[in-house]
Design brief:
- This protein starts with a strand and ends with a strand.
- It is built from ten helices and twelve strands.
- Helix 2 packs parallel to helix 3, helix 5 packs antiparallel against helix 6 and helix 7 packs parallel to helix 8.
- The relative contact order is 0.06.
- The chain is of the alpha/beta class and 397 residues long.
- The strands form three sheets. The protein has a five-stranded parallel sheet with strand order 2-1-3-4-5, with helices on both faces. Strands 7-9-10-12-11 form a five-stranded mixed sheet, with helices on one face.
- It binds adenosine-5'-triphosphate and magnesium ion.
- Magnesium ion (MG) binds next to helix 8.
- The site of magnesium ion has 4 residues, from helix 8.
């Protein structure tokens, strides 16, 4: 649709306005007129886009420059021109420099020149408009491009992180599998000699009579053999690849069950248990026995970390994982001695332990394996002398 071009003439001499109207009678312009700056401004207010305004300089009240400056403030797109006689030329030229007037036309003007000037001014109007539209769309496109770039960078970062995590998990589970096979082999080899030692010590005890020293040596041998047997059993259970049997379960029931059979130990060590279970928790699909093994491991580790007593806070709440999926989060927070920063990266490694003989250092790596198989995650946070928290997240059914 072609835009109707509007031109406003402002002159206090009605006869001049008349001339203008006649001059453009056969052109395709809509001609508006006003006999003062004030009226000119009213025309601006009451009309759709005015493309060109041509004003006389000398007018009573508001002069041409003042009027056009006002127009510039409110309708900056309109091309502004001023007509003046030679007597006022200096003042007008200054005004052009100061204000934003496109051109001045000197009196008396030549009609053909006037028409050419207006045609050029119109061209300028539409060129500027087009230019501005292009600039705006360019800025807009630039912004889109910037946002797209940002999203792309974020995506690359996310994917890289995910890839690194998967890689890490892969290395960890490969390590576990290799150790599992090795452990099963060794455990089998050791089980029989251990049984022979245990039975041998029984026999020794029965034949040495009341030689107290020999009795004690036999006892110590038996104890050592039993301790070794415990480790071997731990290794075997670790390497056993039992298929999981998943069932929909209320996770707090499992937590309570494990607390029941560690209750005595907790009391003896002066450890208070604080349960904070959220209301109406969603159910999870788990292998109850395996998950209970994880909870017992965490409880035992906490007990070991609080030799002088303390408290265990067990929180269960609904949460979201990194990908925005609903999960049940279980937190075991103890007030124990904490884990040194340089060790925290190793605690999930098989055989990493800071404890005496009798602890295999398999507790957490087995736990992590179980949680992985459930499609969950296990993480740790710790502060020296303040305590350690383990966070388990299990996907919701
Ligand atoms: N709650 C905790 N507070 C302080 N240190 C901890 C805690 N849990 C684990 N650790 C540290 O992590 C190590 C590894 O734990 P993990 O359960 O795997 O093995 P462990 O307890 O040493 O042996 P096991 O579980 O086979 O008896 C522990 O030796 C201990 O140093
Ligand atoms: Mg342990």
């Amino acid at each position: 649709m072609e835009e109707t071009v509007r031109i406003l003439f402002v002159d206090d001499e009605p006869s001049v306005l008349n001339i203008m109207e006649r001059l453009f009678l056969f052109e395709d312009y809509e001609i508006l007129t006003a006999t003062s700056g004030e009226e000119g401004l009213r025309k601006f207010e009451g009309s759709p886009t005015i493309h060109i305004v041509i004003s006389d300089y000398r007018m009573p009240e508001m002069n041409g420059v003042e009027f056009l400056e006002e127009v510039y403030k409110k309708w900056p797109d309109t091309v502004r021109m001023i007509i003046s006689g030679y007597a006022d030329l200096d003042a007008v030229v200054q005004a052009i420099n100061r204000g934003h007037i496109y051109k001045f036309i000197s009196k008396p003007w030549n009609n053909t020149e006037m028409k050419v000037t207006i045609a050029t001014a119109l061209e300028r109007y539409f060129l500027r408009k087009r230019n501005r539209e292009l600039t705006e769309s360019l800025l807009h496109k630039n912004e889109e491009l910037r946002q797209f770039n940002e999203r792309l960078e974020q995506l690359v970062t996310d994917r890289t992180t995910a890839l690194m995590q998967t890689q890490e998990q892969l290395v960890q589970s490969e390590k576990l599998a290799a150790i599992g096979i090795l452990a099963a082999g060794i455990a089998h080899e050791i089980k029989n000699p251990l049984a022979i030692i245990t039975m041998g010590t029984e026999y020794m005890k029965s034949v040495v009579g009341d030689n107290a020293m020999l009795q004690e040596v036999a006892d110590r041998l038996k104890q050592a053999a039993l301790r070794a047997d415990t480790i071997v059993k731990g290794l075997l259970s670790y390497s056993r690849q039992n298929p999981l049997s998943f069932k929909e379960t209320d996770i707090t029931t499992l937590i309570d069950e494990t607390l029941t059979f560690t209750e005595h130990e907790l009391q003896r060590k002066n450890i208070e248990v604080i349960r904070k279970y959220a209301d109406s928790l969603p159910r999870v699909r788990v292998d109850a026995n395996q998950i209970k093994q994880v909870f017992v491991n965490l409880l035992m580790n906490g007990i070991d970390a609080m030799p002088a007593g303390g408290s265990f806070t067990i929180r269960v709440e609904c949460s979201e994982n990194g990908a925005g999926k609903k999960v049940v989060q279980i937190v075991y927070a103890d007030t124990g001695f904490g884990i040194l920063a340089e060790r925290i990266g190793k605690i999930f490694d098989p055989f990493f332990t800071t404890k005496d003989i009798g602890n295999t250092g398999l507790g957490l790596s087995v736990s992590k394996g179980i949680i992985d198989k459930h499609g969950g995650t296990i993480n740790v946070e710790s502060r020296i002398e303040e305590g350690t928290s383990f966070f388990i997240r299990l996907p919701v059914v």
